[in-house]
Amino acid sequence: MNRFRTVLLAAGALAAMPVHAQAAPADGVKPIAFTEHTLANGLRVYAIRDTTTPNVAIQVWYDVGSKDDPKGRSGFAHMFEHLMFKATRNLVSEQMDRLTEDVGGYNNASTDDDYTDYFEVVPANHLERLLFAEADRMASLVVEPTSFTSERAVVEEELRQSTLARPYGKLFSVYLSAASYARHPYARSTIGSIPNLESASIDDVRAFHATYYRPDNAVLVVSGNFDPAQLNMWVDRYFAGIRRPATAIPRVTVTEPLRTRAASYTVYEPNTPLPAVAITYHVPPDRDADIPALSVLQTILATGESSRLYQDLVYRDQLAQDAAANLDTKKGTGNLIVYAILAGGKTAAAGETALKAEIARFRDTPATPAELTRAKNQILTEAIRSRETAEGKARTIATSVIIDGDPHASDRQLAAIAAVTTADVQRVARTYLGDDRSVTIRYLSSADKPAGTSGDVIGVGADVVVADLTPPADVPIIVAAGAADRTAPPPVGPAVTADLPHPVETVLPNGMHLVVVERHDLPLVTATLVASGGAALDPLHRAGTANLTADLLTKGTTTRSATDIAQAIAALGGSIASNADRDGASVDVTVKSDQLAPAMTILADVAMHSVFAPAELDRARAQVIDGVTVAMKNPAQLAGLVAARLVFGDAPYGAPMEGTPSSLKAITRNDVLHAYARTWRPSTTTLVMVGDVAPSAAKSLADRQFAGWTGGAGTAAPTRSPVTGYPAPRVIVVDLPDAGQAGVVVARPGLARVDPRYYPLGVANTILGGGFSSRLNQEVRIKRGLAYGASSRVQALREPGMIAALTQTKNASAAEVVALILDQMTAIGAAPASPDELQTRKAVLVGNFGRTIETTNGMAGMLSAYVEQGVPLDELQRYPGLVGGVDGSAERSAAAALLDPTPASIVVVGDAKQFLEPLRKAHPTLTVIPAADVRLDGATLQ
User: Fold this and answer.
1) In a domain, 385, yes or no
2) Is the pLDDT of residue 7 over 90?
3) Which residues of 483-492 are buried (b: 16+ CB within 10 A; e: fewer)?
4) CB of 375 closer than 8 Å to CB of 303
5) Which CATH number characterizes residue 641's domain?
6) Is residue 427 predicted with pLDDT exceeding 50?
7) Are residues 673 and 572 in the same domain?
8) Which DSSP state fits 88?
9) What pLDDT does residue 195 have?
10) CA of 347: how far to CAs of 340, 350, 353, 354, in Å?
11) pLDDT surpasses 80 at 10
């Protein structure tokens, strides 16, 4: 789990107070219409009604975060967040998942420096039940030893996964915060440390709940399809009676001093494939009047391929594999964080010089008017996208209230951004981004550490102010009610019917297909061109050709350079992306609907007129090789790549889509031109348009832009020979010394997307590993605390894909986790699922489907996948019925045939000395390959 105006009313007088927006914050973004009121116990309630969705989002945000972690307990607020999903007086442990995931919704939470938020999206007829549950865990959380111990172990695995196993994990999770603050408790990382987590006690947890989890420290936001009067009645019923403690809420009051002297650190860490450098500068609180100008600066600096960092460091100089910036604003002093993961052969010193030069440009020279316009349009479009869903609207309001104390803050910041000038951008750069106000971290591989040096230590300073936990005097110890005394959740209300979209399909005169889904709730359109082909057609020993070809589509046409394309689409406030997968390739744009026509001109140009210049090919190749280098140091990613080779051998789906260093170096421009010719032609291309556009207008645009495209007419579509057999299963250990965690994958061949067993297998796989309540997650995470999560996936493509069960765990438990996965895969085909399990897992599938198609990008992606895989488009309307029609017999049959681990290969990537012997005892024929010797160019792996 990852994750204003106050009107006091008597508890019984809950007529919501209307909020009237003053004016649109910026052209094209309507203010979010909401109502607000505050209960007598201090709970602030915001309601956003939207009857176009069958769902409702419920969010409860608490004004407490990792800055409030008690002394010696870093990571405490985050660990507590996990415990909020356990038992309450009236709910048994994990019942929150029964109330959400099992009905087709989902829940999650996240902890930030300043807040902890809990959120659910469920079918609208389950709203009352979730209000009951949220109120119950606010008022009567039960903390007992078993769940406390298990969930603390889960958090430790999350720490290993995000911080220790992931390349650059320590840089972003630990070092940046510690180096950025001298006094404020923001210095401590949100994830904490294992010693601090181990030192926490149950009494600490109970005290933390009593101190901060109270109605006057919370915000409730409900967004979606509900009746306002009924909502008010339910809020009164479940929340108004929660007691407001008489004691004051502890608040962090320390102010971070102005930094007047630059600081610099060099650290050496294992599992660091390329050097990195990060620089942070303090910025004011989010509510400050300078934040809009800083937001524009950050967008000019680092958003998209038109940004300065990409254009200068990544594209022009080829100095960095990745370069980005994050404006991390908070209630208190925040940071602008600028970083670069250097390209192969480049140094951190060069990266530091380049990053500081980019910052100096802002201080020394005003941004151009064109840059200013692009940045404002990009921010505007992103704001619209963030409001596509009920959940997104709720998050916008809740963040504004918790961070800025004003539900209108987001709209007001958008209005202020519209008024930002180039002089404003230069002024804030001079005010906040001086060299003397910087902290620089050079992050290098421990293998490159000079003899006799130890590197710098970055830790939380002794002057950081951290308060003791001071709970109310009467901290209650709440116990779960007995079955006879437990108050059951209220009944489910009448169902709200979903209105599934009807794609309109036509064929243009040149043979290109057009698919349109019309939506007019927001001024937004996603247009995707999807073509047949993909990585499965890459020539032997040329893995990565399709991926490189797709990447180069946006890197230059006969009339536009790569920079021209990036700047033109950014000027429209849009984004453009191109990629390849196993069976096809695509290029898509998302823009405000009033910018669709010029965006379509760019989309057509890159599809029809790309030139694939040799210099662009060399540049893209180098970037991909660096990306592969990083992936090979990530235990989970490497395990997945090895698993594909074991399952498919040298067949097309076995090769890495991104390629390998040797295959990428072998790709020529002719290879790319041939890949383009066999993929991009109108007869095998479909244009999908979703959003604020009528089918007639979409056809007119498509006719105008693509009328001259006739390439490949009459040529047969490319084919490939079907796979007639698969390699024998193997057990492979990839030894990655000092890996912070082990990546575990158990994988076997599966089925094609059009196979009639697809839906029964989908249900069976969801029982096995789809969602928090799945069997794998229950066994590995919930019961034993061995991983942050465990799941299984079905890759159903034009040809049979891969079925995989996967997780990450501490190295010492890798063998145990492999055994648990194999046991669960065996068991699922041995006995039928219960009717309840069958029904709830079907609801998970239908709910995930519904949320995917809620956004223009999600809908376009779904339809594009149908096109690639040869699925009839009317399956969009039939999907819920096809899932619902799966019975127990079909599910068990699919599970027995396709989830049986007998033909599965096993891959474990990690520090082998910690798990090799117990794994070898269970699998005597396993093979050990040092990570440095892994070669993914063929099935032998060496």
Assistant:
1) yes
2) no
3) eeeeeebbee
4) yes
5) 3.30.830.10
6) yes
7) yes
8) B
9) 93
10) 11, 5, 10, 11
11) no
Q: At 568, which amino acid appears?
A: A
pLDDT above 70: residue 14:
no
| Residue in 235, 219, 218, 221 with CA at minimum distance from that of residue 48 | 221
For residue 900, give Cα distances in angstroms to 220, 754, 804, 831, 887. Answer: 45, 21, 11, 12, 19
Closest CA relative to residue 336, chosen from 461, 422, 425, 429 = 429
Q: Mean pLDDT lowest for which of 152-166, 212-226, 487-501, 796-810?
A: 487-501
Across 436-472, b (16+ Cβ under 10 Å) vs e yields ebbbbbbbbbeeeeeeeeebbebebeeebebbebebe
CA–CA distance from 579 to each of 503, 640, 646, 720 (Å)?
23, 19, 25, 21
pLDDT of 21 higher than 50: no
pLDDT class for 549, splitting at 50, 70, 90? very high
Per-residue confidence at 77, pLDDT binned at 50, 70, 90? very high
3-state secondary structure string across 164-185: HHCCCHHHHHHHHHHHHCCCCH
Q: End-to-end CA distance of the chain, in Å? A: 38
What is the DSSP track for 28-83?
A: TBPPPP-EEEE-TTS-EEEEEE-TTSSEEEEEEEES--GGGPPTT-TTHHHHHHHH
Nearest-angstrom CA–CA distance, 389 and 384:
10
Predicted confidence (pLDDT) at residue 714 exceeds the cutoff of 70: no
Q: What is the CA radius of gyration of the chain?
A: 28
Q: Which among 252, 264, 157, 156 has a CA at the least distance from the CA of 200?
A: 156
Distance CA 515, CA 831 (A): 43
Residue 938 within a domain: no
pLDDT score for 570: 97
Count other C-beta atoms under 10 Å from residue 885's C-beta.
Answer: 12
Sign of the alpha-carbon dihedral angle for 817, 820, 822, 824: negative
Are residues 763 and 906 both part of a single domain? yes
Whether 466 maps to a domain, the answer reads no
Q: How many CA atoms lie within 13 A of 607 on its CB side?
A: 35
Q: Which amino acid is at 63?
A: D
Print the domain residue range for 67. 17-239
Overall number of domains in the chain: 4
Q: In this predicted model, which residue has the larger pLDDT, 860 or 26? A: 860
Cα 798-627-280 angle, rounded to 5 deg: 130
Q: Give mean pLDDT, residues 636-653.
A: 97
Please state whether beta strands 106-111 and 513-518 pair in parallel, antiparallel, or not at all (unpaired).
unpaired
So what's the pLDDT on residue 468? 85
Residues recorded for the chain: 942
55-76 pLDDT tens trace: 999 999 999 999 999 998 999 9
pLDDT the model gives residue 302: 98
With H, G, I as helix, E, B as strand and everything else as coil, classify residue 793: strand
pTM above 0.90, yes or no: yes
Helices vs strands, H then E, count in the chain: 32, 24
pLDDT, residue 469, reads: 84
Half-sphere exposure of 80 (CA within 13 A, CB side): 35
The average pLDDT across 230-247 equals 96
Q: Is residue 52 part of a domain?
A: yes
